[in-house]
């Protein structure tokens, strides 16, 4: 949140109040209402908060390369030349384009096309624009699903449908690889400056144990934590992470957040489809 600290407390407060208001509107919405709200709320946020970091942050080509490289380190262990990869919320499409060089096909699914130029996309990259719910991708046609810093933005009522969609499109034995902020070090949005509660556009943050339980309900019984730059398939490392969370669970939030800042910054998992 380095970009946030360059703004005055007054401007941070303004951003927080606006985003909290908009998030409240989204929290109260029905599924049908969210289809249209998704397309308008961020536009309203950026209009009312013109100094939002998404608008003011200067991203250099080197910044983009580093971001893509970091995501590829998570994803690469599961990619093969004949793989079909589906990325949820690919944004500018840079990761999808990089992954396209390593797989048979990449499908990016998003509520809008945010690429700078679709003409520059690789031939084996397809972008599917959908309403956030009804995804026209055949059952059991995908080897790997991927999302990065996405799940926390989903409405609580949309979490289960999302994992059901991922399970539907994945082949048996396929893998959903994702990264989402860890609850013990949150909130990870603008809320963090004013409260310990999630009040803005991060609707949920999880621990590894909470996420494993959720995944198991939706047909992902096997999960592997990422440590030391790679997925840990053995029992010991996964048990150690769960044990660390149990140890930290009773610690007061502010102390726990400081202690876990480097140990548990995110929940990064590979979930295997049953």
From TrEMBL:
Please state every residue range assigned to the domain named Methyltransferase type. Answer: 86-178
Keywords, A to Z, come to: Methyltransferase, Transferase
Alphabetical list of InterPro entries matching this protein: Methyltransf_11, SAM-dependent_MTases_sf
Q: What is this protein called?
A: Methyltransferase domain-containing protein
Q: Does the keyword Methyltransferase apply?
A: yes
One GO term (biological process): methylation
- One Pfam match, given by its short name, reads Methyltransf_11
Tell me the GO molecular function terms: S-adenosylmethionine-dependent methyltransferase activity
Q: Which organism is it from?
A: Prosthecobacter debontii
* PANTHER family found in the cross-reference section: PUTATIVE (AFU_ORTHOLOGUE AFUA_2G14390)-RELATED (PTHR43861:SF3), TRANS-ACONITATE 2-METHYLTRANSFERASE-RELATED (PTHR43861)
């Amino acid at each position: 949140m380095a970009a946030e600290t360059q703004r005055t407390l007054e401007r941070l407060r303004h951003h927080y109040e606006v985003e909290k208001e908009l998030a409240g509107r989204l929290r109260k919405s029905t599924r049908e209402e969210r289809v249209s709200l998704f397309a308008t709320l961020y536009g309203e946020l950026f209009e009312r908060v013109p100094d939002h970091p998404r608008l003011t942050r200067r991203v250099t080509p080197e910044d983009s390369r580093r971001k893509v490289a970091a995501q590829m380190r998570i994803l690469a262990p599961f990619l093969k030349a004949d793989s079909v990869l589906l990325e949820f919320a690919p944004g500018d499409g840079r990761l999808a384009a990089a992954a396209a060089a390593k797989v048979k096909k990449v499908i990016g699914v998003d509520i809008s096309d945010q690429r700078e130029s679709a003409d520059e996309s690789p031939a084996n990259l397809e972008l599917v624009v959908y309403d956030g719910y009804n995804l026209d991708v055949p059952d059991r046609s995908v080897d790997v699903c991927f999302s990065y810093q996405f799940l926390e933005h989903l409405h609580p009522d949309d979490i289960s449908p999302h994992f059901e969609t991922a399970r539907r499109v994945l082949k048996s034995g396929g893998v959903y690889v994702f990264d989402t902020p860890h609850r013990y070090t949150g909130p990870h949005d603008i809320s963090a400056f004013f409260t310990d509660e999630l009040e803005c556009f991060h609707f949920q943050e999880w621990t590894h144990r909470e996420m494993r339980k959720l995944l198991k309900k939706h047909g992902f019984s096997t999960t592997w934590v990422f440590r030391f730059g790679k997925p840990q398939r053995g029992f010991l490392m996964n048990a150690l992470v769960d044990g660390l969370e149990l140890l930290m669970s009773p610690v007061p939030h502010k102390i726990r957040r400081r202690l876990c800042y480097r140990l548990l910054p995110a929940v990064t998992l590979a979930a295997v489809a049953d």
